[in-house]
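Q: what sequence does this backbone want?
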């Protein structure tokens, strides 16, 4: 049954929500309940922070009739549940549901998403939609930043901790770090897509401007700045351009999916998210190799990578401590880590 046939003007919010979830389930849309909640909240113009949560409570309420509601003193939640959908609200909701049925990512449809400590990070096609496992990568980096801050306090060093984020996309990783330690870090972010650089810098204004004051917008770069540059080109060895290096930490969620696995990606990824942000070449390690080759120029510290689950063992063998390749490149693999699903997902490298 088409969405237009089941979501009609005058239907209560509770009825529209139940019918939308069922319609998405019939179309085998991933996370049908979560999708319906966010899309209806967006259609009704509810608060980003609380709207979908309120609607989740509406979804959990017993199915109500006007007779039952009118016979008692309805709560605010019950009043919301029985509120009729206007024609404009209904049309807006139906249009968003149709997009979701086509498997367009929910984050693109609503234009924002929460990531780590960032509430309402702006998301635009074709940048990658931030994944939950990437929040784990942020946590690993934050732990290291915390240790570095403590060491600097002990030595009365007031310099900012400099972090390089390679392949920033929406800016999620670097901004989550900068938002947590805005008075102690400076993040420089790289991307090869102009729209990614613009989006990251716009997100930086949204989340970091409060820390620098209205008259000091030019000082935003002291906390965060995204620039248009590839990992391979971020060097002072081949160009007249002179970049400030000496980063304390490098972090990256690079394109890492092997080309042979691209056809196996779900339909809500293929055709929407950028292939350049997903595919890492034949074995998925193309950009990772660029990063490893540049690391000694960028930092004397550690590099944190999110990688394909086939990569940690390959990287461990390639850059094992004491190996010829590790000595030649000046980089070794210190440790690998699993994500919350138990998949090999992260690698910690160290410059020798």
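A:
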């Amino acid at each position: 049954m088409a969405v237009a046939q089941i979501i009609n003007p005058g239907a209560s919010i509770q009825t529209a929500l139940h019918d939308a979830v069922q319609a998405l389930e019939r179309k085998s849309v991933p996370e049908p309940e979560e999708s319906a909640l966010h899309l209806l909240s967006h259609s009704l113009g509810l608060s980003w922070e609380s709207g979908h949560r309120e609607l989740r409570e509406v979804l959990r309420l017993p199915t109500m009739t006007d007779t039952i509601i009118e016979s008692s003193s309805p709560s605010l939640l019950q009043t919301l549940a029985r509120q009729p959908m206007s024609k404009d609200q209904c049309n807006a909701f139906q249009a968003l549901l149709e997009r979701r049925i086509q498997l367009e990512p929910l984050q693109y449809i609503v234009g924002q998403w929460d990531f780590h400590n960032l509430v309402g990070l702006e998301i635009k096609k074709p940048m990658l939609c931030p994944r939950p496992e990437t929040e784990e990568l942020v946590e690993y980096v934050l732990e290291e930043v915390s240790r570095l801050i403590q060491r600097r306090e002990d030595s009365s060093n007031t310099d900012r901790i400099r972090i390089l984020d390679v392949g920033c996309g929406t800016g999620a990783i670097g901004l989550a770090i900068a938002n947590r330690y805005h008075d102690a870090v400076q993040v420089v972010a790289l991307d090869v897509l102009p729209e990614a650089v613009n989006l990251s810098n716009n997100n930086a204004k949204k989340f970091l401007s409060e820390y620098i004051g209205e008259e000091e917008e030019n000082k935003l770069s002291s906390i965060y700045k995204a620039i248009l540059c590839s990992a391979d080109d971020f060097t002072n060895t081949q160009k007249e351009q002179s970049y400030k290096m000496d980063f304390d930490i490098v972090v990256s969620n690079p394109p890492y999916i092997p080309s042979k696995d691209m056809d196996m990606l779900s339909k809500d990824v293929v055709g929407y998210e950028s292939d350049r942000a997903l595919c890492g070449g034949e074995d998925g390690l193309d950009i990772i190799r660029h990063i490893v080759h540049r690391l000694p120029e960028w930092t004397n510290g550690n590099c944190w990578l999110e990688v394909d689950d086939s990569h940690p063992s390959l990287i461990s063998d390639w850059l094992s401590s004491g190996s010829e390749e590790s000595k030649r490149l000046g980089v070794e693999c210190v440790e690998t880590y699993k994500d919350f699903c138990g998949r090999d997902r992260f690698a910690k490298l160290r410059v020798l």
